Amino acid sequence: MTTSLPGPASGQNATEHSAAESTEHHPDHRLFGLATFLVADGMTFAGFFAAYLTFRAVNPLPEGAIYELELLLPSINTVLLLVSSFTFHRAGSALKRDDRQLCRRWLLITATLGLLFLAAQLKEYFSLPFGLTDNLYGSTFYAITGFHGLHVTLGSLMILIIWWQSREGGRVSSQNRFPLEATELYWHFVDGIWVVLYGILYLL
Amino acid sequence: MTISPPSDFASTAEQPRWQRYFGFSTDHKVIGLQYLVCGFLFYFIGGALAGALRTELLTPISDFMPREVYNELLTLHGTVMIFLWIVPVVNGAFGNYLIPFYVGARDMAYPRLNAVAFWMIPPAGVLLISSYFLGGASQSGWTAYPPLSLNTAATGQVIWILSVLLLGGSSIFGAINFVGTILKMRRPGLQMMQLPMYCWAMLGTSILVLLSTPVLAGTLVLLSFDIVAHTGFFNPAMGGNAVVYQHLFWFYSHPAVYIMVLPAFGLVSEILPVHARKPLFGYTTMVYSIMAIVFLGLIVWAHHMFTSGTPPWMRLFFTIATSFIAVPTGIKFFNWLATLWGGSISLNSAVMFSCGFIVNFVFGGITGIALAQVPFDIHVHDTYFVVGHFHYIVYGGTVFVIFASIYHWYPKVMGRLLNEPLGQLHFWLTFIGLNLCFAPQHWLGLNGMPRRVAEYDPQFQFINQISSVGALLMAVSTLPFLINVIWSAYRGTVAGDNPWNALTPEWLTSSPPPEENWHGEAPLVHEPYGYGLKSPVSS
Ligand SMILES: [Cu+2]
């Protein structure tokens, strides 16, 4: 006997439908999927951090290769990213209220903060006394900050794309917020990783 | 003149069936079969490689091929079998085909991502095998330990890394889909604790994939830096630390064993109740066992590193943690026995392969517990004992379940039953071949024959020849299987929709199932194993 439930949820699904989904008959699970992916992405960083801490614990640096990292630039960068998480959030709530003008302004500010972060990161790279292949410490430092920098680069590009798409008549609107919400989730993740990175690589 | 169909959907539906299997289809059933057939192609390649290795080992000297080629074929064999055959088939093939049915959905949560995940596999496989012709494949085994992987030919090693990165990405995308589908796509009214066991197995497996595969990916990127950019992460000559590579590698590769074997646990739990006509024994304990294995599987990796200068406290911890895995695994083992106990069992090919799995897996599990004990492990580390143990788990375990599953679900996919006498012949050839091939290897290892070497002490020749005869039997065993699969597609007994009188949802639709899985709404199955109960399917 296979009878089916006339699900109360199916009515609820209809209201959750967004314009972007065309073929799916179910609520939008894409943000959940992105969150799952970010768990995996976070594990890559976890692996790198574990390697870095082990290297530091068991591989002593050769004489003359002990570095005190300057704290000024990375601390400014931490502030930049934290503020950018906040501005991105403002952009998201502006879009929810259908205030596109305001949303786009916050997006532009967020992207600028991201690009400033990258510029400061590059400036730090050029001022450091060690290079990628000088020793284990340098290699690990560049690998981890570089991998995070790639994330920021990708995120900034995505913000600029959304900024373009949220113009009048673009595909991002208060009806279709998925691209913005996905990028926002990703951006918060990248910021969170930076805070951990800052703690482990600079403060510890 | 042709009139173009109104939409994408219509065009795929009107295509002849076979053509859809070569394109970018988003239908989970098509993708599942794509994984299966693609996996079998690589299985035959990996099997041919194993045949070449066993031929070389017929004599103690390297006369069949140069030693470097032996190393290359050995690396390719391991990589192909693990990353292109077992992981994609036992996860991707059966997972994609069955999970949407089990949760009562019409497709996976992210169909396009699903197709992308599959289509990353063929290029990765071609890339890997092409390295053999582009100046030689990697020679450092599927583990790619530095400094060995840094000292052998760079091109093959870099291609190997690229290929494994692609396959790892495919695996992660697949896992995202399984988690999303199992947690979010369940039909209204279907509780988690009512899901068929394979869903739980795939949920556990996907958690392992999501937590461990990215670590391997990051590690391999660092290894490629060491090769290409001359950094020294894992190169002791440059102040690096090769043991850190081993930690990171095994943080993935121990869970990888469960990524290969947990889905097999799930599939066996589907097959046995149907053919024993009894409910699955101990459903709740099965679920908790899977989750316990997932948790323990993440904290036992260093049992592969007892000879890598691990400090005593680490040896102690990892020995104890590993031994603990015997508890949830034992629970599952006894649950399967209890499921069979007193049932009216039909000893068809699916059941034979499932029982073969139980026998082989117990043997492999016992040698696994032995290997977890430091004093014993130090004695047999990197010997044929490990090779024997591992193949009992992945071949005797998982590959047996893959065959059992094919005998069980072939009628659902093709609408016809597989031939029974050929299936029994296939089983006995495989079972005898496996035990003949791998049981003697334990003896070889105990007596000190190292693995991964083309030449060996002449006193081991006779036992090696027995092992090679077993390998030959396993190669021969694929013939009745292939004949069966092709012959039955045209001449097999017509199966009907539900030849086994099974209760899990995939049998409650036509064979083969329609494009959107069900002709009407998805059935709500509260008791997927309710054999002998009054009204198993609720209303
Ligand atoms: Cu292990």
CATH topology of chain A: Four Helix Bundle (Hemerythrin (Met), subunit A)
Number of domains of chain B: 1
Report the top-level CATH class of chain A.
Mainly Alpha
* Major β-sheet profile of chain B: none
Structural class of chain B: mainly alpha
Globally, the shape of chain A reads: elongated
What is the topological layout?
The complex is a heterodimer of chains A (204) and B (539).
Chain A: H1 8-16, H2 30-58, H3 72-96, H4 100-127, H5 136-165, H6 178-203
Helix pairs in contact in A: 2-5, 2-6, 3-4, 3-6, 4-5, 5-6
Chain B: H1 8-14, H2 28-56, H3 67-103, H4 111-119, H5 121-133, H6 148-151, H7 154-184, H8 197-228, H9 242-276, H10 283-297, H11 312-324, H12 326-340, H13 349-372, H14 374-380, H15 384-414, H16 420-446, H17 461-491
The structure holds copper (II) ion.
Residues 254, 257, 303-304 of chain B line the site of copper (II) ion (CU).
Describe this structure in words.
- The complex is a heterodimer of chains A (204) and B (539).
- Chain A contains 6 helices and no strands.
- Chain A has 204 residues and is mainly alpha-helical.
- Chain A has a single domain (29-203), classed as Four Helix Bundle (Hemerythrin (Met), subunit A).
- In chain A, helix 2 runs antiparallel to helix 5 and helix 2 (30-58) packs parallel to helix 6.
- Chain B has 539 residues and is mostly helical.
- Chain B has helices at 8-14, 28-56, 67-103, 111-119, 121-133, 148-151, 154-184, 197-228, 242-276, 283-297, 312-324, 326-340, 349-372, 374-380, 384-414, 420-446, 461-491.
- Chain B is globular, with a radius of gyration of 23 Å.
- The relative contact order of chain B is 0.10.
- Mean pLDDT of chain B is 93; it is low at 1-13.
- Chains A and B meet through helix 1, helix 2 and helix 5 of A and helix 7, helix 8 and helix 9 of B.
- Copper (II) ion (CU) binds next to helix 9 of chain B.
